[in-house]
Amino acid sequence: MLRGTARPRGGAAAGRPYTSGEGAGRAGACVRVCVRGGGVGVAGSGSEGRWRERRDRGPRVGALSGAAAMAAAAYGAHGAQRPDEYQKELYETANRYHLLHSLALLAAPHCRRPAWCAGSLLCAGIGLFCLPLYYHGLSGDPGLNRAAPLGGTLLILGWGALAL
Predict the structure, then answer these.
(1) Cα(86)–Cα(146) distance, integer angstroms
(2) For 64-119, how does the pLDDT look when each residue is reduced to its tens digit (9 = 90+)?
(3) Is the separation of the CB atoms in 88 and 75 below 8 Å?
(4) Is the pTM of this model over 0.70?
(5) Helix (H, G, I), strand (E, B), or coil: what is residue 33?
């Protein structure tokens, strides 16, 4: 990567790093590409690196969610004490949906327009759908199950946002 100082038309140094486009007249002044802190953006836009941070955050959240789903699966298979078959089925359903939607979170940064929207809807849906089922499956208390339909709706909306 080349680094230097951008020169405005008056010839005085502006003090901005650049990689290309200098000396190309008006087109070069409008579409100057900057490299700052590992991110790439348009000079003067203030967004140098923000889009890259957002794209990097989605796979991390999906990977952490998947790791949590696998840990919950291991706990459900080896450590959880459930008295009846219904609680075991609830726990396994929560875990299946948690792992499936963690994989969808990995794809959220690659959707065209509302990448933050799809990821946010899927995260909220996982929290509001899977956590009450995990809780009911482990404790036998159905007190949080009212949130599950809202969580399921958010998961559906998250898949719809992925399709946009």
Answers:
(1) 18
(2) 999 999 999 999 888 888 778 999 999 999 999 999 999 999 988 888 876 688 99
(3) no
(4) no
(5) strand
